[in-house]
């Protein structure tokens, strides 16, 4: 890679700082574009990125190029978009105004609409959809930690030919994404645990250790899958487990669940959902782009989706200062009651069960 090439991570929060830090440690020129709060934090503490397998990259403040001015985009030869879904519209406007024409843009965001929104504003030929399968949590000042595993997926394109070897060198191997919609919906199904985790107030590993929380997650996924089937969409497996098998796994008794998961999946004690982190810091969440996306799809089909609708409503309440310490049984009862009420309201549409 030519030394003049520069990756700009647009929306450098937890995921953006982690990925950018790994790439910088491999020797790439990385600039982070984000909030003044994080800029100040990095200026005072430097940056540390770690993972559950022992990765540790530490940077002094002078080694981290963190900026807040969108004019920074003019220097980019590759833009990695990691803004929250609600920020995609503004990101499009900033890239249109400041980035050079033709510079490739990769969406590494949750949800199923962001890549399409970027394409609508920037053109199909330069925008690539991507998927981040792992979880990153902000552990302390300047410290971002990856607590789960998985490989990045990005649409295949000659635009990335010069960069992919560097992703490999950074131990961030990229798998070519071949079916964008199927992959995005498959990831969204996994993200339906984000509201459960955020409402539990627990680390991911502790939350998933409890059968009733897992049943809440299974109900959200099951409702979503039935909507997708009705819409003619086949979600892709993220990892080695198809959605139907994931639902079965979540409903196993605790002892059997831990036996199966212990063989194939690793979640460390620090891992939490990004939605929990947003609530912790008083920020808006992406619930409308996750649970809300299922609700929207159900409405187009003339169906009700009471479980995901209730998950969205509870997170919205939490954004306004409501509860974030629901026990597993309390949360499960909320979902069961939502189904009961929906079944008593025929005008709400056909209930997905």
TrEMBL record:
Pathway: Cofactor biosynthesis; (R)-pantothenate biosynthesis; (R)-pantoate from 3-methyl-2-oxobutanoate: step 2/2. Belongs to the ketopantoate reductase family. One of its GO terms (molecular function) is NADP binding. One of its GO terms (cellular component) is cytoplasm. Residues 7-154 form the Ketopantoate reductase N-terminal domain. Keywords: NADP, Oxidoreductase, Pantothenate biosynthesis, Plasmid. Pfam families: ApbA (PF02558), ApbA_C (PF08546). It comes from Paraburkholderia pallida. It is an enzyme of class 1 (oxidoreductase). It comes from the Bacteria. SUPFAM superfamilies: 6-phosphogluconate dehydrogenase C-terminal domain-like (SSF48179), NAD(P)-binding Rossmann-fold domains (SSF51735). One of its GO terms (biological process) is pantothenate biosynthetic process. InterPro entries: 6-PGluconate_DH-like_C_sf, 6PGD_dom2, ApbA, Ketopantoate_reductase, KPA_reductase, KPR_N, NAD(P)-bd_dom_sf. It catalyses: (R)-pantoate + NADP(+) = 2-dehydropantoate + NADPH + H(+). Residues 179-318 form the Ketopantoate reductase C-terminal domain. PANTHER family: 2-DEHYDROPANTOATE 2-REDUCTASE, 2-DEHYDROPANTOATE 2-REDUCTASE-RELATED. Its EC number is 1.1.1.169. This is 2-dehydropantoate 2-reductase.
């Amino acid at each position: 890679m030519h030394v003049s090439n520069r990756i700009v991570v647009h929306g450098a929060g937890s995921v953006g700082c982690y990925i950018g830090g790994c790439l910088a440690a491999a020797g790439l020129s990385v600039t982070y574009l984000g909030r003044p709060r994080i800029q100040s934090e990095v200026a005072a503490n430097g940056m540390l990125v770690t993972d559950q397998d022992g990765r540790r990259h530490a940077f002094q403040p002078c080694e981290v190029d963190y900026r807040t001015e969108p004019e920074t985009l003019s220097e980019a030869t590759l833009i990695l978009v990691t803004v929250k879904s609600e920020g995609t519209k503004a990101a499009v406007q900033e890239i249109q105004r400041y980035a050079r024409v033709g510079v490739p843009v990769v969406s590494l965001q949750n949800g199923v609409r962001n890549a399409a929104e970027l394409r609508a504003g920037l053109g199909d030929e330069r925008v690539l959809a991507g998927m981040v399968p792992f979880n990153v949590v902000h552990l302390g000042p300047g410290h971002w930690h990856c607590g789960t595993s998985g490989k990045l997926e990005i649409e295949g394109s000659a635009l990335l030919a010069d960069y992919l070897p560097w992703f490999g060198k950074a131990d961030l191997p990229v798998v070519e994404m071949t079916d964008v919609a199927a992959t995005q919906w498959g990831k969204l199904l996994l993200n339906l645990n984000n509201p459960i985790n955020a409402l539990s107030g627990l680390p991911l590993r502790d939350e998933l250790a409890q059968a009733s929380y897992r049943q809440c997650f299974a109900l959200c996924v099951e409702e979503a899958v039935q909507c997708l089937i009705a819409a003619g969409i086949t979600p892709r497996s993220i990892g080695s487990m198809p959605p139907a098998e994931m639902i079965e796994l979540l409903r196993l008794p605790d002892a059997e669940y831990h036996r199966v998961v212990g063989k194939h999946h690793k979640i460390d004690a620090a891992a939490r959902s990004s939605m929990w982190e947003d609530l912790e810091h008083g920020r808006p969440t992406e619930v409308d782009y996750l649970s809300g996306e299922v609700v929207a799809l159900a409405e187009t089909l003339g169906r009700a989706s009471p479980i995901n609708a209730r998950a969205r409503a509870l997170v919205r309440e939490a954004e306004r200062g409501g509860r974030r310490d629901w026990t597993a049984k309390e949360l499960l009862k909320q979902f069961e009651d939502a189904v009961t009420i929906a079944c008593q309201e025929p005008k709400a549409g056909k209930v997905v069960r």
